[in-house]
Amino acid sequence: MKKMLKILFLFLIFTGCSSAQTKTVINSEKNIYSDKFTISVGEEFFNSFLSQIGEIKGEQKIEIPKFLKIIKVEENIKWCLKNITIDIEKEGAILFGTALVEVEGEVIESTFKSKVKLEYDNIAEKIRFTPEEVRLKKLANIDITNFYAPTFELKISNPFNKEIKFKMADGTYKTINIQTNAIIKTEKDRVEITMKYIN
């Protein structure tokens, strides 16, 4: 009999501890996510968008070092950015691509990569991502963003209605205004936009 009581006592302690642990986890998750929701945009979505843009072309007068890099001569260059892709990691996003530059009839090909500045416009409901630099090391280390800084925009709408009408018991409607503020961050192969309820 004593042995049975001992087993029952241990069983109750074990199940009690398990219940407490489960309850703690549930409460923790509720505290983290109770006033937020997250939109996740995958890396391939961005790359599909960039592939649709295709080549970006331009023309510009720049100073190029010549004669043992002592003298700078102004030259008219034609440039083209193509094969642009984005790699998204937890630490941030990197833009890759190929640049073709024509100087004095000669075409120079150079690859580039650039850190990307990411932001979410709460009013326009758009993701914007802009390369910090597009530097061409094969051509006097020119940074194309000095005269053209491409900003890529994607419309990612906030799924919450700005106003919700609730029908009251007397037949009238009460208007509830909902305001959210977005925080953007990168994770492996995706960008996450977390909307926080601020009413």
Structure description:
There is one protein chain. The chain is of the alpha+beta class and 199 residues long. Helix content is 22%, strand content 53%. It is built from two helices and 13 strands; from the N terminus they run αβαββββββββββββ. The protein has helices spanning 2-33, 43-53; strands at residues 36-42, 56-66, 71-89, 92-103, 106-121, 126-131, 135-136, 142-143, 152-155, 163-167, 173-177, 180-187, 190-197. The strands form four sheets. Strands 2-3-4-5-6-9 form a six-stranded antiparallel beta sheet. A hairpin with a 4-residue loop joins strand 5 (106-121) and strand 6. It is elongated. Residues 2-31 have low confidence and may be disordered.
- Overall residue-averaged pLDDT value: 77
Main pleated sheet? 6 strands, antiparallel
Low-confidence stretches: 2-31
Strand content: over 45%
Order of strands, widest sheet: 2-3-4-5-6-9
How widely separated are the two ends?
Answer: 61 Å
Which class of secondary structure composition applies to the elements?
alpha+beta
The number of helical elements comes to 2
The helix/strand series, from N terminus to C terminus, equals: HEHEEEEEEEEEEEE
Helix content: 10-25%
Radius of gyration computed on alpha carbons: 28 Å
Mind sketching the topology for me?
Blueprint: H1 2-33, E1 36-42, H2 43-53, E2 56-66, E3 71-89, E4 92-103, E5 106-121, E6 126-131, E7 135-136, E8 142-143, E9 152-155, E10 163-167, E11 173-177, E12 180-187, E13 190-197
Antiparallel strand pairs: 1-13, 2-3, 3-4, 4-5, 5-6, 6-9, 7-8, 10-11, 12-13
